[in-house]
What we know:
The chain has helices at 2-8, 28-32, 43-47, 144-148, 156-165, 167-175, 186-189, 194-201, 204-212, 222-228, 296-302; strands spanning 21-26, 50-51, 68-69, 78-85, 96-104, 112-125, 128-133, 179-184, 215-216, 234-237, 244-250, 258-263, 266-277, 280-285. With 306 residues, the protein is an alpha+beta fold.
Amino acid sequence: DFERRVTELNLLDVFNMQGKNTFFIPVNQALNSLRGEQDLIDKQVIHGHIVPGKVLFTRTVQNPNDQSESLAFTDNLKVFISMENVTSGSEEGKTFYVKSNTVAGDVSHNKGTVIARIVKGNIPVKNGVVHLIDRPLMVVASSIMSYLQEEGGQLSRFHELMREHYPDLTHLLVVERDLTLFAPSNVAFDKVNAERLREVVLNKERLGKLLNLHIIKRRLTTDEIVDRSVHEIFQEETMSNGRKLYFAVNQPKAVVPVISLEGGGVNATVTTPDIAAKNGVIHIIDHILGIPSQTVYVKLSTDPML
């Protein structure tokens, strides 16, 4: 299906580029999810699936902030590509993702991050390497829930917690517009005491407060957080009854600034910022807010105010 769209746009030549290049190809199922919006895949989006002059293998992925310019990187449109390993363990058990980060958009292409899972990677070809992916890059065609519902995805434990113990919130994330979700990764769940988490889960009122602490009822991007953190500690109301999130920025002038936040006494770092969704934005964080999991020393060393 992707090949058909490339042919329609007369862009097959870019896949015949000589040299060492990296190609990310969405599988047929990835395009089925567009539901008739295949026109969203235009020339710039197709170029955004290619890293020219560089071969990226999953085994060489180390720092997820190492970004490469895509073929869609021009004077008016600036799209970076990066890869990330979100699991630990043997090479066979690892799950890899690719991210397109549009840092400067245009009329047809919004700023933000789109993240896709590599379903089959490291396919060697004459002019580089191919990775097959489960959704098209640069295209904001998914809802917040579609990212959470990804089977075996890096947010699957957070989704499971909501679905099984607080389904009201899953409904809200479908019907509400312009939300910001700070979603703890699966790894974040390993950092909390299981007994403490179980106590919260068994108390629906406490669980509701905890989950709502991760949601802001408007779109909040890292650009705004950086801008508003220059002269003061930026804070924003959450859906959890008057409780706020407090933000701080490290390396504000970097391509990917390091954003930290504090909520319910817990510090977290944004590991994947600005995942663009149709009804809002997702920031993946490395701790569950509201459940203490840090020692006094770690709290002192990670809280910018301390």
